From TrEMBL:
Domain P-type ATPase N-terminal residue range list: 29-83
PANTHER family registered for this protein in UniProt: PHOSPHOLIPID-TRANSPORTING ATPASE IH, PROBABLE PHOSPHOLIPID-TRANSPORTING ATPASE
Listed name of the protein: Phospholipid-transporting ATPase
Start and end residues of each P-type ATPase A domain: 117-178
PROSITE patterns recorded: ATPASE_E1_E2
Domain of life per record: Eukaryota
Organism encoding this protein: Bombycilla garrulus (Bohemian waxwing)
GO biological process: phospholipid translocation
Residues forming coiled coils: none
Subcellular localization(s) per the UniProt record: Membrane
Organism lineage string: Eukaryota, Metazoa, Chordata, Craniata, Vertebrata
Length: 735
């Protein structure tokens, strides 16, 4: 497989800089950058020319420079000093301000580039500065340390070859994400074993997408053919992310310095312009047009006045011979420039001096503001650039995510519906809470024989179809096990929904214990441990909106369990009580609960072998891997038998509704972005006061676009808006 397909634009990396054994493909050496991060805009050598170039790109500065040069070149009514001194002052103050801010960036860069990193060299651990890290180096990262560059995850202190990571500094997600070590290297737990690794990595050239990575690792055992394994984003540990709940990991550097995904996502270092400055530039252009018009009119009037000979050459101001011989057009142009200088006061250079001083001093007032001091972390506000001070408080739109921003991101299992029967973990009966009760039927019949089997399959599906990890030691983020009520296992997952489902099913009698040596263990209601071999995991993605696992039971049966949004499960179901489950899902969604549907199908050994071949070829593809995997998933995830649905509650944050109401009163327009069902999203928007009971909701959905063209839908919405706002002027809708 290793040589079947090659990238045109790829890189090959030798792990630990070791040469592969004889017989491996020829390798063309490639140059990679070191691990230095450079966020500063200037260097000592280019500061003056680069800063001057950027400053004279401003219309005002360029204009005053031209006026100053005109005053130097021609005989003008005012001294060049009147334009030169204020311009010099503005340029100097701005240069000092930007130089100081850039010096602070240099200091921050040096602190990052000199932080210590644990290298593996010749089977031993050595500590060096981060900037000395090179592509191909093997490094060790300990718990709560940040990754020094983008690493391929080779092994961890955890027996199952996983580690937990928080990426809050990259994408704002504070939850723990699970990453997986390469299958052939996860058993290496010390420096000597890791250093003995012979492998090459082929991967794509650096690109900024945090969630995409395609590559493969070729592991050489003696002189045998290499074993090729696919590498994806689940194997890539990104610079800036932090290792959590894992003692240590080993990884190999593949992207360093300014090629890391974090560095590629840096904002451009070009000078930022505030809205005030942009509006000042517009006014400057308007006044410049007035100035040019005045100078032009005065030049024309001068020559109209001088058309009479006695006015052109009065007795007290006779022309010299050179003046009489001068070109008329050149003389007119010189007069035009003289008038420009004479009326130059219409554009006040002093205003720009004042604005620059206000920005510079204003940034210190922000830093000194005691009300913005955070006592929790002991830090006040930090002003990275004073060019945008006046933008603060000028917000017009607020875009907010729903989960974890408006809501607490603390999911609680509410109920599940299996074949029309509703199961609630804590049922209230006569004012008392009955724990571990499975009651409340939608229909007046308890599950029969086949219903009982489906019920057990549903609980097993939720215990097996997830990426939840079980915390090993006694504490998780400072919380002791014995402090957690009725929770013998502490679960960690990148998705709080999954933890809520696993904990909810635990209260209904089925407990997920652990994943060990690729076997998932669950404890059933009879307190018997059931083992299932985990064969494949089809990860959740926002396009498919579902995830699946293929597992093998101790009796040899192979099951494919799938859970996902109802819109992605119902079209793929061939049997089951679809109508009852759909009505329950609809009801829960209207109440603002997060819903998921669960389905399964049985595979024969032969069908699974076919699936395995398709997956292996798609996973090892270097080009269009995501597309090929999606096609394979589409082939496999169909003809399901529907088992049921779940409902999970994510409560609103405290004062979320009051905050949105206050923002709206301030004239700020709030947009909520969510991947939930439409009904769930609407219920949340009513709860957080984004919608009122009298709000008319305009819907633009794919369902509507299927019924009529996009143009017609927009036209109808437009008519509705104009009808509702009849009192407003037509100018409101001119856009």
């Amino acid at each position: 497989c290793a040589g079947e397909e090659n990238w045109v634009d790829s890189r090959t990396i030798y792990v630990g800089h070791r040469e592969p054994p004889p017989g491996a493909e020829a390798y063309i050496p490639q140059r990679f950058p070191d691990n230095r991060i450079v966020s500063a805009k200037y260097t000592f050598w280019n500061f003056i020319p680069k800063n001057l170039f950027e400053q004279f790109r401003r219309i005002a500065n360029f204009y005053f420079l031209i006026i100053f040069l005109v005053q130097l070149i021609i005989d003008t009514p005012t001294s060049p000093v009147t334009s030169g001194l204020p311009l010099l002052f503005v340029i100097t103050v701005t240069a000092i301000k930007q130089g100081y801010e850039d010096w602070l960036r240099h200091k921050a860069d040096n602190a990052i580039n000199q932080c210590p990193v644990h290298f593996i060299q010749h089977g031993k651990l050595s500590v060096q500065q981060s900037r000395k890290l090179r592509v191909g180096d093997i490094v060790m990262v300990k718990e709560d340390e940040k990754f020094p560059c983008d690493l391929i995850f080779l092994s961890s202190s955890r027996g199952d070859g996983t580690c937990f990571v928080t990426t809050a500094s990259l994408d704002g997600e504070s939850s723990h994400k699970t990453y997986y070590a390469v299958q052939d290297t996860k058993a290496f737990h010390n420096e000597q074993e890791i250093d003995a690794l012979h492998a090459t990595i082929e991967c794509e050239q650096p690109q900024p997408d945090l969630y995409k990575f395609v590559g493969r690792i070729n592991v050489y055992h003696d002189r045998n053919e290499p074993i090729a394994r696919p590498l994806g984003s689940e194997n890539l540990l990104l610079r800036g992310a932090t290792l959590k709940n894992t003692e240590k990991i080993f990884g190999v550097a593949i992207y360093t310095g300014m090629e890391t995904k974090m560095a590629l996502n840096y904002q451009s270092k070009s000078q930022k312009r505030s809205a005030v400055e942009k509006s000042m530039n517009v006014f400057l252009v308007v006044y410049l047009c007035i100035l040019v018009s005045k100078a032009l009119i005065n030049t024309v009037l001068k020559y109209a006045w001088q058309s009479e000979p006695f006015r052109d050459e009065p007795w007290y101001n006779q022309k010299t011979e050179p003046e009489k011989k001068r070109n008329l057009f050149l003389q007119a142009f010189t007069d035009f420039l003289a008038f420009m200088v004479l009326f130059n006061y219409i554009i006040p250079v002093s205003m720009y001096v004042t604005v620059e001083m206000q920005k510079f001093l204003g940034s210190y007032f922000i830093a000194w503001d005691e009300e913005m001091f955070d006592e929790g972390i002991g830090e006040g506000p930090l002003v990275n650039t004073s060019d945008l001070n006046e933008e603060l408080g000028q917000i017009e739109y607020v875009f907010t995510d729903k989960t974890g921003t408006l809501t607490e991101n603390n999911m609680e299992f509410v109920e599940c519906c299996i074949e029309g029967h509703v199961y609630v973990p804590h049922v209230i009966c006569n004012g008392q809470i009955l724990h571990d009760c499975t009651g409340i039927d939608m229909i007046d019949s308890s599950p029969g024989g086949s219903g009982k089997e489906r019920e057990e399959l549903f609980f097993r599906a939720l215990c097996l179809c997830h990426t939840v990890q079980v915390k090993d030691d006694d504490s998780v983020d400072g919380l002791k096990k014995n402090q957690v009520p009725r929770r013998p296992c502490i679960y960690i997952s990148s998705s709080p929904d999954e933890v809520a489902l696993v904990e909810g099913i635990q209260r209904l009698g089925y407990t997920y214990l652990r994943l060990k040596d690729n076997y998932m263990e669950i404890l059933n209601r009879e307190n018997n441990i059931e083992k299932f071999e985990l064969l494949e995991v089809f990860s959740f993605d926002s396009v498919r909106r579902r995830m699946s696992v293929i597992v093998k039971s101790s009796t040899g049966d192979i099951f494919l369990f799938c859970k996902g949004a109802d819109s992605s499960i119902f079209p793929r179901v061939k049997e089951g009580k679809i109508d009852q489950v759909r009505s329950r899902v609809q009801r829960n969604a209207v109440e603002g609960l997060r819903t998921l549907c669960v389905a399964y199908k049985k595979l024969t050994a032969e069908e699974y072998r076919d699936v395995q071949k398709l997956l292996q070829s798609a996973k090892l593809a270097l080009q269009d891997r995501d597309k090929k995997l999606a096609e394979v998933y589409e082939k496999i995830e169909r003809d399901f038998i529907l088992l049921g649905a779940t409902a999970v509650e994510d409560r609103l944050q405290e004062k979320a509704a009051d905050t949105i109401e206050a923002l709206q009163k301030a004239g700020i327009k709030v947009w909520v972005l969510t991947g939930d069902k439409m009904e769930t999203a609407a219920a949340t928007c009513y709860a957080c006061k984004l919608f009122r009971r009298n709000t008319q909701i305009l819907e633009l959905t794919t369902k509507k676009i299927e019924e009529q063209s996009l143009h017609d839908v927009l036209f109808d919405l437009n008519k509705t808006v104009i009808r509702q706002n009849g009192s407003l002027t037509r100018d409101t809708f001119s856009g």
